[in-house]
Amino acid sequence: MLDYLRTVAILFAQPIRLVRTFTPDTLRADLLAGLTVGLVLLPQSLAFAILGGLPPIVGLYSALTATIVGALWGSSSHLNSGPTNTAAIITLSVLAPITTVGSAEFVTAASLIAVMAGIIRLVMGIARLGMLVNFVSDAVAVGFTAGAGILILSNQIGPLLRIDLPPGAGILTTITETATHLDAIHWPSLAIGLATIIIILLAPRLTRKVPAVLLSITIVSPIVWFLDLKAQGVRVMGPVPPGLPPLAQLPIFDLDLIGHLANGALALAIIGLVEAVAIARAIAGYSGQRIDSNQEFVGQGLANIVSGIFSGMPCSGSFNRSALAYQSGGQTALTAIVSGITVFLATTVLGPFLAEVPRAALAGALAVTAWSMVDQRAMARIWRGSRGEAVIMITTLTLTLTLPLQFAILIGVIMSLGYYLLRTAMPRVEAVVPDTEFRHWESAYGRPMCPQLLVVDLQGDLYFGAVNHVEEQLLELLEHQPQARYMLLRMHSVNQCDVSGIRALETIRRVLRVRGGDLFFVRVRASVMYRMQISGFYEQLGAERFLDEDKAIEYLFYRVLDPAVCIYECDRRVFRECQELPKQLLPGPVEIPVLDGKHPVQVTAHRLWELLHTDHPPLVIDVREPREFQRGHIPGARNLPLSRLFHERDRLPPGPIVLVCRSGRRSLRAAAFLAGRNPPPHILEGGMLAWEAANLLEAVEQF
Hints:
Elements: H1 2-12, H2 14-21, H3 24-51, H4 56-73, E1 80-82, H5 85-95, H6 104-126, H7 138-155, H8 157-161, H9 171-180, H10 187-206, H11 212-226, H12 255-287, H13 293-309, E2 316-318, H14 319-327, H15 334-349, H16 351-355, H17 359-373, H18 376-385, H19 387-402, H20 405-425, E3 428-434, E4 441-443, E5 453-459, H21 467-480, E6 486-490, H22 499-514, E7 518-522, H23 526-534, H24 537-541, E8 546-547, H25 549-559, H26 563-569, E9 602-603, H27 605-612, E10 619-622, H28 626-631, E11 638-639, H29 642-648, E12 657-660, H30 665-673, E13 682-684, H31 687-693
Parallel strand pairs: 5-6, 6-7, 7-8, 9-13, 10-11, 10-12, 12-13
Antiparallel strand pairs: 1-2, 3-4, 3-5
Helix pairs in contact: 3-4, 3-5, 3-14, 3-15, 3-17, 4-13, 4-15, 5-7, 5-12, 6-12, 6-13, 7-17, 7-19, 7-20, 10-11, 10-17, 12-13, 12-14, 12-20, 18-19, 19-20, 21-22
């Protein structure tokens, strides 16, 4: 508990740490960058307030308060908080059905929902839930941003044409109303808006030292004043009251209003956090700064709370202002603080000039910004990259255009979480085989597979939500390979395994044991191995079931798999070890039986040596292929490969027989051939490997 309280105290002590980063070397750079960003923040705050159906002064209040507080308590040195187009359009969407747009109640509700969204963000930061933004996919953000951009663009048609449209009207309503009022288009307003758009688009080609939006308004506004277009019906901003933001009279005890605003506040909190953290991380990718999501949650929460208390609107991080802060040479959070102070000083000094800014010019600036929100390159990348994310993106975009924005956001987030859970609950379970050079594993789809051994990649965690899918997929692979008795699981992609996962592995092992085989593992991670050990599964399996990946196939091929199947029943050469293996497929319907019932008596190498030196030695039959037999065999042994043994078993002399092969596995199959013989055949325990290990005499034939 003390550690947690200490962590929370550190979150709120962020301004102290920031002040320590201010140095004389960074002061000049931050001042210049802050002035530059402030000149962009000023017209944007006016435009975004109008976009949200609020008086322009509300945007200025937020630009002063949220920008400074967000900088002091955030973690990014370049993130610029304040009014944004996304926050404005969500605010309008949430408040328009509740109260009259532009009324005093509407302005008060905007401040209240800013405080509510800020509290949600602050609580999430204190609870250290910063990692939750990672669960909102880019598909949701890109789809919603594109939809919001289209909505913002449609909302500027009214100011550009000076046609009175219903506040917060949807796209269809905007189109139909505009089509029925084409005769009411105010051509001077349209000309001003188009001129603003052209200047913004051309300005970067001429100079990048002056922000395009500021340049366009600076050019257009004097022209409107000089030509006295206001007298011809061009609407302007009107008086901007100077001074510090006043305290808002928040209806904190109006539970009915708070209930109506709850969903919208949650949507504002979620999309604002995703937007702010994504922007901070994007800029940090260039600056090399480390971003603390929890600290950013606290900064964004306090910024919105203070903005709402001081008559402001909901806020978030702005990408173009943050990028401008970095490009202008800003070094610390002082850049954002200076930009907020610049807005305050500018409104005090330039109040009469701001009053003459034409609304059509701001609408033109917003139209350009709105179109830039439709990130066609990102949409194309998502469309090509993942079908699931493409569906989420298109669905979120469609819902943004058809439903209230808070519901579109929440549905998009729920779809994103559902898609994440679906992917983790259905990890890829894939049979693999070596490539043609035996250097890597690749999908076995359409490739010949070993009839005895299934090598399977598990590409996901074995937790309770995924075990049913994994178990079904493994059982399906075994069903398609009815002769497979052994399975090698490659576990390098399995980071977690719970009790349900252990139970699923036990089920697969039981199925394999019924077939006469077993389950083996390679590349088991430490966390998964620990779970296997404490659950008793590791002890149940035995250490010999966990193999080294580089030697696993070699071990299984020479120690576990049935060579009789490899030589006489399988015409494939899947593994490197198969390449030099003699293949002698049995003709016709001949099948090599598997020993059923009691196993034959096994004799050790030393005991067989003693028996061979008695007066009545047993007949030693070596069932290996001739090439193997010639390389070394027991003196006096007779070579009868399994393929010949089947035809000559009735011609074998009476008396004791000892069957020999390389490791004893083929001898078991040979014993099944000779079942019913009296006396029953014995086999050499461990085969020729045991004979060689005992340093007993071998006979080698000339090739």
